[in-house]
Amino acid sequence: MAKTGFLPKEKIKDFLDALSKDAQVHVPVKEGDIVAFKPYSADAEICLTRPANTSPKAVIYPQCDKLLSFEYTKDPEDNKKTSITLSDKRDYPNAVIFGCRPCDAKGFTIFDKVFVTADYVDPYYREHREKTTIISLACETPFAGCFCVAVDGGPADKVGSDVLMTDVEKGYYLESLTEKGDKVLSLPMIQEGASYQAAAQKIQTEAAAKVKNPLPKGATEKVNPTLFDTDEFWQQVAAKCISCGACTYLCPTCYCFNITDEAARDKGERIRTWDACMFQHFTLETSGHNPRPVKSRRLRQRVGHKFAYYPEKYDGVIACCGCGRCIRHCPVSVDISEIVGYLKDPGQDPKTWIERNTKAAKDGSL
Amino acid sequence: MSTEKLKETIQKVFPDVETVICWQEGFDKLHTTPLFMTASAQEAKVVWNPLCVQNLTSYLPSMKKKVAVVVKGCDSRTIVQFMEEGLIDRNNVVIIGIPCRGVVSVKKVLRAVDFQPIEDVKCVDDTVIVKTASGEKTLKVSDVWPDKCATCQYPTPVIYDYLIGDAIESDKPAESVYEDVREFETKTLEERKAYFEREFGKCIRCYACRNACPMCVCQDSCIAETRDPHWITQKLSAQEKMMFHMIHSIHLAGRCVECGECERVCPMDIPVAKIKKKINAEMKYLYDYTTGANPDDKPPMYTFNVDEAKIKEHKL
Amino acid sequence: MLKNMLPFVGIDGKRFHYTWVSASEGQKWQQVVTGFTKQVHDLGPLHEKKEIAD
Hints:
The structure holds three protein chains of three kinds.
Chain A: E1 4-8, H1 12-19, E2 24-31, E3 34-39, H2 57-60, E4 64-74, E5 82-87, E6 95-100, H3 102-115, H4 123-130, E7 132-137, E8 163-167, E9 171-176, H5 179-185, H6 197-210, H7 225-228, H8 231-238, H9 246-250, E10 257-264, E11 267-274, H10 295-313, H11 325-329, H12 336-343, H13 350-357
Helix pairs in contact in A: 8-10
Chain B: H1 2-13, E1 19-25, E2 32-37, E3 67-71, H2 73-85, E4 93-97, H3 106-112, E5 120-124, E6 127-132, E7 135-140, H4 147-150, E8 162-163, H5 179-184, H6 189-200, H7 208-212, H8 238-251, H9 261-265, H10 273-287
Chain C: H1 2-8, H2 26-43
């Protein structure tokens, strides 16, 4: 029987203070009109009533992470000889993500399969990941763009979280899902939770019923391979895309990166930073060749990676958590759930699609 | 009814062009999204209302075939600026102009309903009626419009092949356009520095602002992303983010048409247009130049005069 | 224009200097550089040195 607990609303600050004793706690903070994950401080205006604009991805997978530092020293005896000292000392703090949504937590499980495998382990990611505890808040209502139920998720999904909180008016019903979760629930201000279980269950079930599944009835499990390979389809759906990186940077499951050496004279750092497959130069090679020079190809890759390649490689797991941020914040409202709807529509015939939707969509600019 | 007339015009124009770029309903009731109309039957999806916020002209420089595009007043200035800079072939664009009394800022509408999920939105005359779980709220467009609409000098497109409806005169004083710049300059140097560091520190370098900018045509070889030469670091300090924004603003000197897209698309709600407005105010003062007003104008950063009226070389 | 943009974003205008110096004006170049360097040093650091931010 999983450990449960109850956190009264008036004890939230005490709870966060207690967690802050040996971890850096990250909470969704209201800054003007946006909500973003920031380190907890006593005067932070925590906002739990709507999903944050950004995902908490940066806590475990920083936008800029130092991989190593290097220093060149010239041999004083022979100035043609230079030696180099490398240092990859890491000292990541313990961290807690408080108040993210189940979709955000699920995002990290997508990273896990790629960054921590039997053959290769990314030590930076693994250390951040192992030192972080995730306390998610179940959603009561979907927001514009949300479609977690269409990608094997849900507003009270437990995958990826250490603790799941459900708002039961006076406080939060807590369910521990891991050992890390058990530790959180053993804090002194956590009261007994069993009496709130029924209420929490009701809220969770009602919430799941409210999320609309945008995929068509009888949606196929795999994407239609013919439509997926139809150029005209992608030119049409990608026509409005402006190739920025907003969708990628806000996405809880996107993990592409760049590695850059940045040095000034004889000292420098090798840093890993986020990259986006939507950028024009994402696939630019040192030869000068760019295999994906047009946005229709880039969008096809992004959708394909999340809904075709990743599931094929990792036992059907979809690399999308349905959080809807990409749809909400896209400058032109590209809707990935709509695109996947076309690709998984059992009645979709690529030939009919082309006839119905294209005049002569061969404009090379797309 | 504007929408009907718009649809009629689009149907008329459609056979002669590769595609008509207009607006359709978006993923929810509060959003529209660009429609690249490539089939006659898609005309039924066309909408025109205060939710039509996107500047559709940003696609023009990269489109090689003949297209038609629907433009509001602010959008039409972009086309004029393209012409001044030789970025489009005027013969390849059919401009359907539509006089506009203002659009909404999605962010301001959401703020007005405390960011609750939106169930329905209806546009009625100069109001939007927004329905959420707590009921219906009627908002005046002028209470939730982006800052650019509050000082709009060009409600009627400055260039068009077809005009849907009657021309509208601006009822906003010309001096109001840069009032926000003057107001900001009353703050102290330290206050301004703190403001920019706080606001632009939120930047996630997603480049939505850069890519949404119609005038930014070198996005695919952007100085902000080059590694060789390595102009701007990829590190996260507010200084580096400011470097990108300052460089981008300078690259738009004498080119920015104040369409407001940069600010609209920022996912972090940063006042991205602020520096650009200051530079535009300088352009107006130094060279008496307004972007996107007249296709025969020469952008001041493209020309050189030995003696400039407002620049005292030796006393600057 | 740049000179007026910098104070707008909170950077003291005295940190920017713009002048013509011909290759043959060696003494003037030395004066300009020395004078400007001192001017900027007197203003102090623009920002605190920060490691990679969060």
